[in-house]
Amino acid sequence: MSDQRDFRQLPDLALRTLGGGVVWANDEAFAARENLISPGPSVFDAGSFGHKGKVYDGWETRRRREPGYDEAIVRLGAPGIVRGVVVDTSWFTGNYPPEVAVDGLAVEGHPTVADLLAADDWTPLLMRTGVAGDTENEFDVTSDRRVTHVRLRIFPDGGVARLRVHGEALPDPRLLDALGTVDLAAIEHGARVVGCSNIFYSSPNNLLVPGPPRSMGEGWETARRRDDGNDWVEVALAAESVVAVAEVDTSYFLHNAPGWATLRGRAGEGGWFDLVPRTPLQPDTRHRFVLDAAPAATHVRLDIFPDGGMARLRLHGHLTPDGRTALDRRWTDARVAAKPLSRNEIA
């Protein structure tokens, strides 16, 4: 993964397993719009044909016979600030769109499709840009504005396998106030992975997604170690918080779960302190630990010994007053930021 852009280490805010949805497309004659945000890479069967022609694991529109473009609107599973997009045209060779554009929109509540189509304040995240076929086309996005929806436009028509919208989730502080005790390590609440020793098999972002895992493939798994070290992941919490209950979940990891784990916290640039000392882990088990009078923390580090796979990391607690103030400042700044521009505009 070393050849990928830095933004691809951030979570995909549009992913279906994070709660994203493709709420509308003007055309999906050949392949369904919902495929755009499916987890995992697009798959291809050369001999697979249906009543409408070749079956593609992506979104494909009919051939245009008039001027215009096709478009799809995606509701992000976790609203936030977009740092990069991937318009993946895998398997589309003679039928991919030559150019694409991506726009963002921030709306309150639960808008209808009619509301989204009528909105006049869509702002560009990626200006109309050329793309290649059968390629993961990566684009940095320069934006400080929080968005809840993105719009993919393809010029003039064609097929896109996946749309990835990588960024930093930014929740409404009022939501966390109302919920009280929340999972401070959840992507949807603004937590993010800021360091990891090994991502050989799967991304550590999987630790922070909502819902229980459905297979070993939905967790974080490292390569087998052949030295005396251990693997670890560091998470920046939603904001400065006090963690009351920690959950370390090895579900579905049977013969490759870590033998032990520790949890440590730190506030800002301060030193690390123990939340859960080195503790044996059981395979395929949700381990829960009540933390009595834990100090406030902005970051938590999970160390596993020596290696293996973890399904989920949950850190339930509440924001400190300073954390609530900081989150409110981020929220306010992201709502009033200047109109974003992409660095990838093609004249």
From TrEMBL:
<keyword id="KW-0378">Hydrolase</keyword>
<dbReference type="InterPro" id="IPR005164">
    <property type="entry name" value="Allantoicase"/>
</dbReference>
<dbReference type="Pfam" id="PF03561">
    <property type="entry name" value="Allantoicase"/>
</dbReference>
<feature type="domain" description="Allantoicase">
    <location>
        <begin position="190"/>
        <end position="319"/>
    </location>
</feature>
<comment type="similarity">
    <text>Belongs to the allantoicase family.</text>
</comment>
<protein>
    <recommendedName>
        <fullName>Probable allantoicase</fullName>
        <ecNumber>3.5.3.4</ecNumber>
    </recommendedName>
</protein>
<feature type="domain" description="Allantoicase">
    <location>
        <begin position="19"/>
        <end position="169"/>
    </location>
</feature>
<dbReference type="InterPro" id="IPR015908">
    <property type="entry name" value="Allantoicase_dom"/>
</dbReference>
<comment type="pathway">
    <text>Nitrogen metabolism; (S)-allantoin degradation; (S)-ureidoglycolate from allantoate (aminidohydrolase route): step 1/1.</text>
</comment>
<keyword id="KW-0659">Purine metabolism</keyword>
<dbReference type="GO" id="GO:0004037">
    <property type="term" value="F:allantoicase activity"/>
</dbReference>
<dbReference type="InterPro" id="IPR008979">
    <property type="entry name" value="Galactose-bd-like_sf"/>
</dbReference>
